[in-house]
Design a protein that fits this description.
19 strands, 7-stranded mixed beta sheet, single chain, alpha/beta
């Protein structure tokens, strides 16, 4: 259908389910559809780029086993959390922290496409026209590409309205190869707050070792704006030195960069009756941490179960409303400087079992566990942030047109 130099004169493809965007969220959906034995459903994938290779790394926690286990690059039962005050080594059992690189995920999605008999359209979707019964997907110059009963759209899109706090999780990582043993492959560094802290924001380093000579070493900031290339490289050089590694004995094999929104702004999970957003656009990113992968995995599983049961492919909200409220409060406390990030995480891991902290960050804790997490937070800064958040919400409602 899509040809070099233009579009062939052919009618749009008619499908039951169209996936717009072929990145991580769509790849997980395709694999889940195949795993649940979905057949006889007409599927199309629309993206101008066919994803392959190692363009990103995801890290997440959960119990060992499951469909992703054969695809993992590494996993760790013990992780390190370090602040200027102390260093902790946490045993996550029965959970484990795991690293998944993109190449096997994309390869698994390509195999699922083939098994599902999916139609691949190598074109950008520029418009979605939803009449409540079907969705017409148009490409460049308004050319009709496909008609679908349902559309799953994982492309980045702005929130429905601005948030009271809008930060970014932004990072750069170096895949480092050492000439001799330099890393502990049995332990990942989850957060190391000994990095210089920005004037407005939080920074930390982390280390994901694949072997004693090969690891991803990354510098991450939670702050309102990204750094320059020079800023990231300077921060990474400083963190590598902090780890006691000698630059002359290291080789940078790959570089990874990323920017993820951290905001209390609401995203439209379902912008029209038959268009459903996935990934960050569908609310999968945890506002207070930027964690996304585990929620994308849940969304994919829920979509596949729904399709297999001939139900609408609409996943549940990624996080409970009370967690989104807690995230808004935490973001406000950090943004106003009332709460110092290293102190917050130091108290969080000091006063809670690590399994509870990880479940909380994934949105899987009970209301009782949420109260325990809240009690471990600094009282005065968080109380002030709660009041400020309430005032901000009231002002926002008053300003909205009736």
């Amino acid at each position: 259908m899509w040809q070099r130099g233009g579009v062939a004169a052919s009618p749009p493809v008619d499908v039951d389910l169209a996936l717009v965007g072929g990145g991580g969220a769509a790849s997980l959906v395709l694999a889940a559809l195949d795993r649940h034995g979905v057949r006889g459903v007409r599927v199309a994938v629309l993206d101008p780029v066919r994803k392959h290779g190692q363009d990103r790394t995801w890290a997440f926690w959960g119990r060992p086993g499951g469909e992703l286990e054969p695809l993992l690059s590494a996993s760790w039962r013990r992780v390190e959390v370090t602040t200027p005050a102390r260093r902790r080594v946490l045993d996550l059992a029965p959970l484990r922290y795991a690293m998944l690189r993109s190449a096997p995920v994309y390869a698994r999605a390509a195999e699922a496409e083939r098994r599902l008999g999916a139609t691949r359209i190598d074109a950008a979707v520029t418009a979605l026209a939803d009449d409540g019964t079907r969705v017409l997907l148009r490409g460049p110059d308004g050319v009709p590409l496909a008609r679908a009963s349902w559309v799953l759209d994982s492309r980045p899109r702005p929130p429905r309205r601005p948030g009271r706090t809008s930060w970014l999780q932004h990072f750069r990582g170096w895949w480092l190869e050492a000439g001799a043993a330099a890393f502990d492959p049995d332990r990942a560094v989850l957060m190391d707050f000994r990095t210089p802290q920005p004037r407005r924001g939080v920074s930390f380093g982390y280390v994901l070792p694949v072997s004693d000579r090969y690891a991803l070493v990354e510098y991450t900031e939670f702050s309102p704006a990204p750094l320059t290339d020079h800023g990231y490289d300077r921060a990474l050089r400083g963190y590598v030195a902090r780890l006691g590694l000698h630059p002359e004995a290291l080789r940078v094999r790959e570089v990874e960069n990323g920017v993820i929104p951290m905001t209390d702004a609401p995203f439209a999970r379902r912008p029209s009756p038959r268009v459903v957003c996935l990934g960050t656009a569908g609310g999968a990113t945890r506002p207070s941490t930027g964690y996304t992968f585990a929620a994308m995995l849940r969304q994919a599983e829920q979509v596949a179960r729904a399709v297999a049961a001939a139900r609408p492919p609409v996943p549940a909200p990624a996080y409970p409303r009370r967690h989104l409220w807690l995230d808004a409060v935490a973001l406000r406390a950090l943004d106003t400087g009332r709460l110092a990030g290293p102190d917050f995480f130091d108290r969080l891991f000091d006063r809670n079992p690590p399994q509870r902290v990880l479940r909380f960050l994934d949105g899987g804790t009970s209301p009782g566990e949420d109260l325990a997490v809240m009690r471990s937070s600094p009282l005065l800064p968080m109380t002030s942030a709660v009041l400020g958040d309430a005032v901000g919400r009231l002002r926002g409602r008053l300003r909205r047109p009736r």
